[in-house]
User: Fold this.
Amino acid sequence: MSDHNHHHERSLSEIEDRVQRLEALLVEKNLVNRETIDALIDTYENKVGPRNGARVVARAWTDAEYKTRLLANATDAISEMGYQGRQGEHMEVVENTDTVHNMVVCTLCSCYPWPVLGLPPAWYKASEYRARAVSEPRTVLREFGVDIPQQKEVRVWDSTAEIRYLVLPQRPADTESLNQEELAALVSRDAMIGVALAGEAR
Amino acid sequence: MNGAHDLGGSHGFGEIDRRQQVNFEHFWEQRVFGLTLACGMLGQWNLDQSRYAREDMHPVDYLSSSYYEHWLHGCERLMKERGLVTDSELQSGTASKDNAVMLEAIEPDCVDRILKSGGPTLMETDQLAKFKPGDHVVVCNFHPKSHTRAPRYIRGHRGTVQAHRGAHIFPDQHALDGGRIPAHLYNVRFESETLWGEDAAEAGSAVYVDVFEPYLE
Assistant:
């Protein structure tokens, strides 16, 4: 196998074959179990995803005491909802206000709070976002359709250590009559990364 | 290391492509995801070592290959480095008789428990924290060829400590030999103008980075 095969598009079948060989080899050597791989995929495809984070946000919007706990000790407050573990061991929640808008990136790889958001979207892991979020956040936000007024500060959180960030978006206006479940439906994955506002259809 | 992975502030990448909204675009990507996690659970390497195995790709390969190709590269590389597979086995896809290993695969019913417990990095330490919120700090100008979590764009720059995160496993050492040394971790605010200069910085923005004490002067 060439280490310096600098084609932009390696053929799909070439990669598929390589992955199949690796999996077959590791199964034969009893280093991995195929059902374990299936269970790992199933966890993040079907069980853990941004609905978890949305429930945390909706609760914070409706329960002032919970919100205080969430901002003071996010790991414990999130774990109280049953969401914890890998890539969410040490959580911080950053709150959007009338004067501050927060957004999250990992410039070095793709660190992301799995227990509350699931696996990151492709764009979050891609070079474009990782390169630009820290140096031109307002421009990036405009690409996502979010125009932050000049007087509002934009804070970019680069997840370089093992702290994982969840953005607490501002509660949309005229939602007083909604219950937690209805509110959670207004909270998109992107709003909790900080590249959308709550209540926006995504 | 100053690898292609250290992307913050890089130019020329263009618009963000938001078309792919699913976790896995191709079936093989799911398998690489599951394989990587399942192999990691064998306990033969830690998270920082797996990050280093990906970022140590040739820069041209790193930038021209997809995310799960990085993972595939890292997984194969670590399995080889730990003597669990050989190049010829990877090429044939079948085990050779003279490279038996004594590890056992993680069973599917352990998955939930392992994921739920995760890998906390917070550590106890007797060493006092050097800095406190409000302190002005400067990131060292250093360029290790080994793994580090100090992105290039903050090195040499001044910021203000916002929070002390306690002491965590120091990733640079953790990647080198698995040593779990506690290092105080601080959240540091960097003004955009400090990082990117008056002309390039977007007014009214700041970057917050979790910085380990050994990275600070």
